[in-house]
Design brief:
5-stranded mixed sheet; globular
Length: 246
Amino acid sequence: MTKNVYFLSDLHLGASYLKNQLECEKRVVRFLDSIKDKASEIYLLGDILDYWYEYKYVVPKGYVRFFGKLAELADSGIKIYWFIGNHDIWIFDYLPKELGIQVIDGIEVKEILGKRFFLNHGDAVGKRKPSFLFIRWLFRNKVCQFLYSILPSRLTIPFAHSWSNHSRNSENGDCSNSALQNLTDFVKEHSKTNPDINYYIFGHLHIIANDKINNNTFCIVLGDWIDKFSYAVFNGQNISIEHFSE
């Protein structure tokens, strides 16, 4: 019997604007526990953590239940892929080594259960403002990362959460019909030269979409786990967006 493949994004665990951070983490853990016997692969498409900076010898506190569940699922044979978003950029080698998951920074095109998938958080495709592209480059620059790493964490963590709140407010405006149209336009153009790709799956916009581009191609946006608790599930034949409810 073929097991399902699951896709989710934008959990933003640890965000200061979440009403109950611990309950949000526990909800995700309960979801992962509910699919452990049905999943062959799990794709986490970015912004899983609202902020993460991995130092050479120390890591941020928190997320113990979530990390423990991921490790349990990986140890049981479920393949887990974590795509870096624009909030959880600074993941290096700790999570892959400790949890047994594969971390991907960028775009991944691969075959899953006989279908071709284009996977990305969503911040690396389509037309972007120069300011956004500059910040994206800055955060990924090795020199800037090193300089950031030598700053005291008691300064960088409050700054990061303040930046996240600002980003969240800005993204509320970005998550509009125009933002989705920008993504859809990218898929339409890209699929012209890549007709073998069946599903383009993204996060980032915090909205839910499952749009048919042509007879063979779909553009899917996963929503979030702030208030939608949404995810996509693929059974080898069809893909659907569902909501986790208890």
